Every structure is written in C-alpha cells, then in structure tokens.
C-alpha cells in the first residue's frame, strides 16, 4: 500500500511537471532559443547527470546481451532523441492546450498499430472509439487559433505532437523490461547517451547561436526547469514507477496532463479554453475510454462441446 502511494505520487508529480512545460516552453521559444537548441541542452544536461550518478550508485551494473543493448538503443532513438525533437518542434508551432490534448491520443494509435502489426482483435466498440478519437484529434490538428492568437503552422505542429505521443507510447513499452532488470540510472545513462547522438546534429547550431547575455532571469529559470525537472526528475520518476506499475498506469496519468495544462495555461494567460476545446477533449477522452475497454473473454466450452480457437485480445 505504501509503495502504491509512492508510485501514484511520483506519477502525479510527473503530470504536473509536463503540464507546466506546455506554457513555460512558449516563453523560451522561438524568441530566445529554437526547439532543437532546447532539446540539445536538455538531453546533454541529463546525459551528463545520469552518466555521473550511474557510476556512483551502480558502478558495476551494465546492460548486457545483444537483445537488451538493441532495446536500449531503440529507447534512446525513439523515447529520448526522436520523442523530444518532435515534441518541442510541435509545441513551437501550436498552442499549449492543443498540444496537451493530442498527447492523450497515444493509446488509440497503439491499438491501431497492434491490430495492423500483431493481428489483435478490434471490436465494434473499439472501432467506435477510434472514430471518436480520430474526429477529436482531426479537429484539434486542423485548428489554427487559440483565443485571439493565430498559429499559421499549427497543423504541422499538431502532427508533430501526435507523432511525439506515439513515440512516447512505444518507448514506455520498450523500456519497461530494462527498468525491471537493471538499475534505473544505468538504463537512463545509456538511453540519454544514445539520445544525445540523435539530438546534437539537429541542435548544436541553435545552442551556439543563442544570445545568452540577453536572457532575463525568468528565462534562465525556465531553461533550468526544463533540464532539471522536465528531463532529469520526470524521466527518473517515470522510470522508477515502471518498476512497480504497468505502462498502462502511466498512460492513465497522461490523461491528467491536459486538465492540469489547461488550468496552468489559462491562469498564466498563455491560452484560452473554449467550448470547441471542451468538445474536442470530450471526443478524444471518449474515444480513448472505448478503445481501452477490452473485449469480454469468451465463455469456457462445456466438456462435451467442440473446442473453439481462442480469441486473441
């Protein structure tokens, strides 16, 4: 029970950290630094931190075996480098609330991918959920306004956020076995090292081109927040929680982010929550709810009945 409370507390803190980032990042980019520059600073800072700490707390722990090493490389490419480049590129073009709403579409994408790649069953209820969520996501993707603010490249930004949400969902599935087998710092040190190799070629120019002398104190504070809280603390808490919780539970907390993001964005005057946004949220949440419902298991056959092929769920 005590450990369960800690897991929920950790995941709630992560949700708050991510929710605040939707608004705070808009202060930094694109005026002070571009999205790729921010991502590079985040990943390099976290890579150095986790490499140092892993040597102190788990000096003899190593990721071993070809399969685990390939999995760690994929986690670094998909969950660190690709995930963060897509997220900040998307957030640079769209509004905080739109970005937070699209984050919740990941479970629907996972169900569709499972049906296509693994042949998993899609029931009529799940089809309805996919349609509802798809309509909600499409209306968000095509939306270019937020209150009085017009985002000319919002469609492209929303697509990037959708790809980011998909990448994060795949990352959670990939990284779970590693977190349960090795020390969290060992895994994080490796995947952030891989992520650095992905991000630096895209962002080194942005890091060098920034005029740091013009940064006001609050911009420095927000950059430190993105490196320390958003990257190091959030990934650490998320991956610690994966030792005791399933990726599905982490997915549930993703649904909390838009609610918190709306409260933060509106209170800071960064965005506006309208009736249209409420309808979009209802469609997406309703779709995710229906997709998340598993088909009922088929009743066990009677002893004298002809056995049926098992239904894959």
UniProtKB/TrEMBL annotation:
Record's keyword annotation contains Transmembrane helix: yes
InterPro entries the record matches: AA-Vitamin_Transporters, EamA_dom, EmrE-like
Domain EamA: 10-141, 156-292
Pfam families reported in the protein's UniProt record: EamA
SUPFAM superfamilies assigned: Multidrug resistance efflux transporter EmrE
Keyword tRNA-binding among record annotations: no
Membrane-topology annotation of the record: Multi-pass membrane protein
Domain of life: Bacteria
Family per record: Belongs to the EamA transporter family.
Protein name: DMT family transporter
Originating organism: Hymenobacter lucidus
